[in-house]
Write a structure and sequence with these properties.
It is an enzyme of class 2 (transferase). It is found in: Cytoplasm. By secondary structure, this protein is of the alpha/beta class. It has two domains: about 5-150, SPOUT methyltransferase, trefoil knot domain (Alpha/beta knot); about 165-240, Orthogonal Bundle (Trp Operon Repressor, Chain A), CATH 1.10.1270.20. It has eight helices and nine strands. The chain has a five-stranded parallel beta sheet with strand order 2-1-6-5-7, sandwiched between helices. It has a two-stranded antiparallel sheet with strand order 3-4. The longest helix has 19 residues, at about 200-215. It is elongated, with a radius of gyration of 22 Å. The two termini are about 40 Å apart. It binds S-adenosyl-L-homocysteine. S-adenosyl-L-homocysteine binds near residues 87, 111 and 139.
């Protein structure tokens, strides 16, 4: 089954952009996923083909008109989840990405200027999503972030089938740190335990480091996931009981 992405944007020329290279690009070529862009301006109705107007209540900038947005959305809508990129949305999570990647695809609405007329969200049951607490100039990069996160999880996209299984955020923690050769680099060595060949010890060390780094860098994750994140990952547990 192909994961189908439709991106509604005023700048379709930005796509596939970075989604056309590496893993996502190869998967796109191979038909693991498809990407369609819809030019929002094609749904403007006045002679100037305007898509925006001044904000009600005054203030700077321009707001995307709901009638034009609705026509663009309706042209693509076919039951796939509808999402709009906006800093006012709920933050995108790996859990949501996994859900989306397991589905038929997504229709993504990209804002520009001051954003969307608020009425569009309820009128078309659109889920507002944010990619982080900062403001971009448009939703396109956000749509690319969301699609990149989904596409790498599609079956067959990542080389080692397992490399998508236990990653940052899946256990409510950041992932443990990685090391590779050379063994000694600029006087710094790889942690001894990783060379021990003792898989239970390695798993325990990795879990400790994941906890430690998460506490240090992302205490919000520990708070959000509470006790669940204190339990060792299932892999570590399995190996512990075998040893
Ligand atoms: N005035 C708005 C920001 C508009 S930025 C506000 O303060 O909320 C213009 C467009 O960029 C938005 O409509 C949205 O599509 C996109 N955008 C900006 N920041 C974003 C973010 N953090 N996540 C997702 N989309 C974002």
């Amino acid at each position: 089954m192909t994961f189908r992405a439709s991106v509604l944007t005023l700048y379709p020329e930005m796509f596939p952009g970075p989604l056309g290279v590496s893993l996502a690009g190869r998967a796109l070529q191979e038909g693991t996923w498809s990407l369609e862009t819809v030019q929002i301006r094609d749904f403007a109705t006045d002679k100037h083909r305007s898509v925006d107007d001044t904000p009600a209540g005054g203030g700077a900038g321009m707001v995307l008109r709901p009638d034009v947005l609705a026509a663009a959305v309706d042209s693509a809508a076919d039951g796939r989840p509808l999402l709009a990129l906006t800093p006012r949305g709920a933050p995108l999570t790996q859990a949501r990405v996994r859900q989306l990647a397991g589905g038929e695809g997504a229709i993504l609405l990209c804002g520009r200027f001051e954003g969307f007329d608020e009425r569009i969200f309820e009128a078309r049951a659109i889920e507002p999503v944010s990619i982080g607490d900062y403001v971009l100039s448009g939703g396109e990069l956000g749509a690319m972030v969301l699609l990149d996160a989904c596409v790498r999880l599609l079956p067959g996209v990542m080389g080692a089938a397992s490399s998508g299984e236990e990653e940052s955020f899946d256990e409510g923690l950041l992932e443990y740190p990685h090391y590779t050769r050379p063994q000694i680099w600029e006087g710094r060595t790889i942690p001894e335990v990783l060379r021990s060949g003792d898989h239970a010890k390695i798993a325990a060390w990795r879990h400790e480091r994941a906890l430690e780094d998460t506490r240090l860098r992302r205490p919000d994750l520990i708070e959000r996931h509470g006790g669940a994140s204190q339990a060792p990952p299932s892999g570590a547990q399995r190996r512990d009981t075998k040893a």
